[in-house]
Design a protein that fits this description.
Blueprint lengths: L5 H6 L7 E4 L3 E5 L7 E7 L7 H7 L1 H19 L4 E3 L15 E5 L10
Antiparallel strand pairs: 1-2, 2-3, 3-5, 4-5
Helix pairs in contact: 2-3
The structure holds adenosine monophosphate.
């Protein structure tokens, strides 16, 4: 069996992180290395999907729930305007292979995409 992902370890409270939202199937944390004034990660609790393509194919309702949590957080923290980024594949900058969305908001001028 592979090692639990860093996000699973956060969910299990084995690694500290600020959990900013939680539903039955999704949770959200502050990114430890923020690339924007608002930089959150929205993550399915299940680690069975490596990236957004797997998630979308297998459980579109869970992907929709993830997007809804992202929108609610962006409504609270950056006026509902945000970038939603799913790095997909190592060459695209993905480092954690437990699907997650980056929610970037605030003043994004001069900011490059995550990765
Ligand atoms: P990605 O490179 O798209 O796979 O995104 C992984 C993200 O997880 C990066 O933006 C990291 O800064 C973030 N990250 C890694 N470890 C932690 C942690 N312990 N707490 C919060 N964010 C983390």
């Amino acid at each position: 069996m592979s090692e639990p992902s860093v996000f699973t370890r956060i969910l299990n409270r084995e690694i500290p992180a600020e959990i900013v939202a939680e539903t039955d199937r999704v949770f959200a944390i502050q990114d430890i290395a923020p690339q924007a004034p608002v930089h959150l990660l929205v993550i399915p609790k299940t680690a069975e999907y490596r990236d957004v393509t797997e998630l979308a194919a297998a459980d579109p309702a869970l992907l929709a729930e993830l997007v809804a949590v992202a929108k609610n957080l962006a409504d609270e923290r950056c006026g509902g305007q945000f970038r939603l980024i799913f790095n997909t594949g190592a060459n695209a900058g993905q480092t954690v292979f437990h699907v997650h969305a980056h929610v970037l908001g605030g003043d994004l001028e001069e900011k490059s995409l995550v990765g």
